[in-house]
Each structure stands twice: as structure tokens, then as C-alpha cells.
Amino acid sequence: MKLILFDIDGTLVSQDGASVFEMKPEGETKFSYAIRTVFGKQIHVDMTKFNGYVDRSILWYSADSVGIKRSDFERELPRLAVEMHNYMKQSNLDVSLYHPIETARQFVDLVIDSKTIAYGILSGNVQSIGQWKLDKAGYNHMFQFGVYGEEADDRIELAKKTAIRADAFFHTTFAARDISVIGDTVHDVRCGKAIGAHTIAVMTGRHHDPTVLDAEHPDFLVDTLMDNSVLDYFGLKKV
Q1: Which helix (H) or strand (E) holds 86?
Q2: Which of these, 217, 222, 202, lies nearest to 9 by C-alpha position?
Q3: Nearest to residue 214, comparing CAs of 186, 181, 174, 183?
Q4: For residues 139 and 119, is the Cβ–Cβ distance under 8 A?
Q5: What is the mean pLDDT of residues 12-26?
Q6: Are 52 and 9 in contact (CB under 8 A)?
Q7: For residues 60 and 171, what is the distance between their CA atoms, to the nearest angstrom?
Q8: Which whole number is the average pLDDT over 34-58?
Q9: Residue 168: pLDDT band by 50, 70, 90 thresholds?
Q10: Which domains does the chain have, with CATH numbers?
Q11: Is the pTM for the entire model greater than 0.90?
């Protein structure tokens, strides 16, 4: 059995409007809001400097910069995640910025219908926000398994948690060669390679330079997940 691990932003969910909302260099972000709400500390977080970072790492960088101890940070991490989620819900009441990438949704539907491929999420988002984005984009309850951004300080360490977790969840053993990491950035490719997984880089995110992704030598570099080479690898057929 194969296991597919999907990134969320730019891979399953469109970033066309959301990237402006989330990656703003000025003003309050979900991270600065959480730090202010939980610790009472004002901080400016320029999100353009944190491309590829997992949420826990950005939170810790922010907390550390205003003198918060690591032990206090770790104790309050669950609450910080809750407040980040609250920020997202409060800031996005009137307009939906999250939409499914059409070809990704088609691919996910084929994977689900196949009944022979295990699948889940490998995302730098904290779980509550990752699931919220998926629900906003119409992937409601499709992903029961996942490893998320509050569980490690970088994406490679996050990826290393997936195999044991997946073995327990799916009640089977996945060899590294049977795991595929799908994402739209170099960070997805690198974390997949770090665990010996198959890597698929897809050009549906906001990073549109194929030479940058190609330099990481993914097993596949495709415009969309409905590329015939990807479908053939997983034994899937277009409807």
C-alpha cells in the first residue's frame, strides 16, 4: 500500500487571496495576535521572512524575541494555537479566501475512490488552522490522518514523525519507498527526501519558478496533480 502526504497551502488550497491575508509584512498577524493575547506582549511579525517555516517555529521565534522562556512557551503552545485559530476566524468572516485547487480536488477524489491508497496531511499549519482551511475549501472531513505544525520546529522533523504515526493509524507498515510527499515548495521536496520518500512538486502555489523546484530534484515536477505521469505512478485513471 502507498501513502500520500499532502501539503495544504498551494497544494490543496489556493493561495490567490489568502497569501495577501496571511503573509502581510505589516500589521497584526495570527502569530502576533496569539503572542499578545496569551503573553500580553506586543510584537511585529513580518511573515515574508518565514517562508517554509512551520507554525511552531514562527511562534517560538516571536516569543523568544520578546523574552518569553522556552518552558513558558511550550506550556502555552496549545493556547497559542487556539488564539491563532480565533484570529483566523475573526478576520475572515465576510469573505472566503480559501478555495480548492480544482485539479488537486480531482486528484484527491480519485485517491479516495481507489480504496487502495492511504493518504493524509503533512503541513506546517497547526492542526486547527489546517483543518479550518481544508473545510473552507470544501475538503470537509476528507483527511482523518495528519501531522501538523505544532508538533516540531521544522518541516523535516515533522516529516520524520509521519511514518510511525501512519503505521499506527492505518495498521500497516509503510516502507520509505511507499511514501509520497506532495507539495508546492522546495521545503516539501526537502522534507520528503529527508525521510527517503517519493517527492512530487506541483506548480500550483505562489512559487511559480520551475527552475527553483527542479533544482531540488523531485521525482516529479508537474503543473498539476492530474498530470498523467502522477496518475500512472499511483495507478489512477481520469474519470
Answers
A1: helix 70-91
A2: 202
A3: 186
A4: no
A5: 68
A6: no
A7: 34
A8: 89
A9: very high
A10: 2-16+98-234 (3.40.50.1000), 18-91 (1.10.150)
A11: yes
Distances (CA, A) of 64 to 51, 72, 184: 19, 10, 29
Greater confidence, 208 or 88? 88
Averaged over 194-212, what is the pLDDT?
90
Q: Look up residue 215 and give its amino acid.
A: A
| C-alpha–C-alpha distance, residues 122 and 119, integer Å | 10
Q: What is the helix, strand, coil percentage profile of the chain, to 5?
A: 45, 10, 40
Q: How far is CA 199 from the centre of its chain?
A: 15
- How far lies 80's CA from each of 20, 28, 168, in Å? 22, 15, 28
The pLDDT-based confidence of 223 (bands split at 50, 70, 90) is very high
Residue 237: all three cell numbers together: 485513471
Total Cβ atoms within 10 A of residue 210: 13
Instruction: Report the length, in residues, of the chain.
Output: 239
Q: H/E/C letters for each residue in 164-196? A: HHHHHHHCCCCCHHHEEEEECCHHHHHHHHHCC
The amino acid at residue 103 is T
- Torsion angles phi and psi, residue 232, rounded to 5: -65, -40
C-alpha cell at 155: 518541516
Work out the number of other CB atoms within 10 angstroms of the CB of residue 160.
15
